[in-house]
Amino acid sequence: MTWLASSVMGRRGVAQAREGAHHHLSESAQGTYHYVYGPYASPVMTIAPGDVVAVETLDAFGGAVKTEADLPSKVLNMPFVNPQNGPIAVKGAQKGDVLAVYVKSLLPRGPQPVGTTALIPDFGGLVASSLTHLNAPIPERVKKMVVTEDGVQFSDKITLPYEPFVGTMGVSPQLEAISSLVPDYYGGNMDLPDVAPGAVIYFPVQRDEAFFYIGDCHGRQGDGELCGVAVEIPATVTVQIDLIKGWSIPGVRLETEDFIMAVGSARPMEDAARMAYRDLIRWMVEDYGFEQSEAYFLATQAGKMRVGNMVDPKYSLGASMLKTYLG
Fold first, then answer.
1. Rounded Cα–Cα distance for residues 250 and 252 (Å)
2. What is the dihedral angle through the alpha carbons of 115, 119, 120, 122, rounded to the nearest 10 degrees?
């Protein structure tokens, strides 16, 4: 028995971490990719709780940046970036439920070099915007990398570990159609490296059938996604999706074998941190029996804060606590 059986998904999910039917969402089956999270697209697939879906995602540029000569300003059609697979409808999901998504695996696909990062004018954590500053834009540049399970070939001298994760996933808002570049309570473009194989991510369902979206896979990324572009890759990501009734959460939560994490997405960054820690403490009180002030003390002394992105329309941070301290 794996740790998944003791997770919230395993203990409270409709399928209790048992695998159901297996599905394959290929590029051709997806057809039209989506650039917003919203309730107005028709589902590309309907599944039952417990089902496993292997999804063929595009990279954040939709495959348009094929060589280092393909500058984003020349080949992209903004704002049509960060394409998403889905929506996947989940039978029985209703507003107030929680969608649990277990990331089973994530593999690069397509001809090498599949990895792409870039410096894009007016975008990134250390650049000025031409809308508000007199500084000249940063020179545009593309860097292509071979990405395999053995590593990310950053240069002739440096090979980085392959540490893949999903940059963007989540559920549809109830009413709005929101750009896939924006993270918030429903998930979206969090760019959080912990959304990785071996993790379960929990999303608050906002509408019937949940409408799950996924895309924007990364071969790896440092904390903050500093220049604004991780090692973007097309990938085959396999997820197991379950449904939890009777568990209300205000935003995205995450669980691994070793820790729990609550995610906050906002600007300024300190508000994202406060939101994440506030929900982590709420989780500790409601599900682990802590008195609020004791949870506050423990988060102060043992909590960890992960900076997912510091470049997107909202910043995403994850506050975590080791399970060994939760009893």
1. 7
2. 140
What number is the average pLDDT over the span 121-144?
88
Return d(Cα 156, Cα 232) in angstroms, integer: 19
pLDDT of residue 135: 83
Residue 1 has pLDDT above 60, yes or no: no
Task: Write the single-letter amino acid at 220.
Answer: R
CB atoms within 10 A of CB 61: 21
d(Cα 194, Cα 200) in Å, to the nearest integer? 10
Domains of the chain as residue ranges with CATH: 3-248 (2.60.120.580)
Is the predicted pLDDT of residue 305 greater than 80, yes or no?
yes
Q: Classify 165 as helix, strand or coil.
A: strand
Q: What's the confidence (pLDDT) of residue 130?
A: 79
Query: Could you report how far apart the first and last alpha carbons of the chain are, in Å?
Result: 20
Buried b or exposed e, range 119-158, using 16+ CB within 10 angstroms: bbbebbeebeeeeeeeeebbeeebbbbbbeeebbbbeeee
Which residue carries 């409408």 as its tokens? 211
pLDDT digits over 62-115, tens only?
Answer: 999 999 999 999 999 999 999 999 999 999 999 999 999 999 999 999 999 999
DSSP character at residue 111? S
Compute the 3-state secondary structure of the chain and give helix, strand, coil in percent, each to the nearest 5: 15, 35, 50
Q: Using DSSP, state whether 212 is helix, strand or coil.
A: strand
Q: Is 235 helix (H, G, I), strand (E, B) or coil?
A: strand
- What pLDDT score does 133 carry? 81
Residue type, 132: T
User: What's the pLDDT at 154?
Assistant: 98
Round to whole Å and give the CA distance between 319 and 192.
Answer: 11
